[in-house]
Amino acid sequence: MWRAAEAEISNCTFDNARIYFDSSPRTVVSDCTVTSGELVSYYRSGGEVLRSVADCIGGSYGIAISECDTIRIEDSTIIGGLRNVTAGGAGTVLIAERNVFRDPTYRTNFDIGYEVTIIAHDNDIYAGAGMPYVVEVCCYPVGTSATIDFGNNYWGEHSNTAALDSLIYDGDDDPNIHVIVNYEPIRTESVPVEKKSLGGLKALFLGR
Asked: pTM of the entire structure?
């Protein structure tokens, strides 16, 4: 959809497809399932993803965000794809709460760059098998006002400081990246099922 003043897609199932918004300020994707594709791709847009599932394979991403306003992901499940979330663009704010992110196939769950602000709390985040990172950051210049907050998430077997220090690539690893990922406090147990809402239930139907 291009230049839609308001748009809503709900209660849909897509296979080998993606939902794409360009220059659309108020969008909602709710109760949708995407298999073998890309749940949502945003460009210069704003919106919400609610109670949805992306079961991705191949060269797809769960959610792709570029040069947007505020994007919210809530009560959803993102499985597989190259990366669960890729986000870039100064001024973009990504808020992620009560989701499950798991099993990316290329490098990292979250690929973050170019001064995106991230607020991600009460999620379950599981690294992909053999993947070097769960969060990988680039391109935050000196004096950036953007912040990256991954506090109060559950990271599966990696829910400890030593593991996360090695699985998060940020300014502690490269002095040219002028932002540090906050990952504290660290949850020691999965987010309760009742908080995950329909996203967790749909994941069960997908056999995950």
From this structure: 0.91
Q: Which contacts of 159-164 are long-range, i.e. CB under 8 A and separated by 24 or more positions?
A: 159/186, 159/187, 159/188, 160/186, 161/186, 164/134
Q: Confirm whether 1 is domain-assigned.
A: no
Q: Which pLDDT score, from 0 to 100, does residue 57 have?
A: 85
CB 42 within 8 A of CB 18: no
Name the band, by pLDDT with cuts 50, 70 and 90, for residue 59: confident
CA dihedral 123, 130, 63, 53 (to 10 degrees): -60
Is 20 part of any domain? yes
Place of tokens 């329909």: 198
* Domain of 98, in residue numbers: 6-205
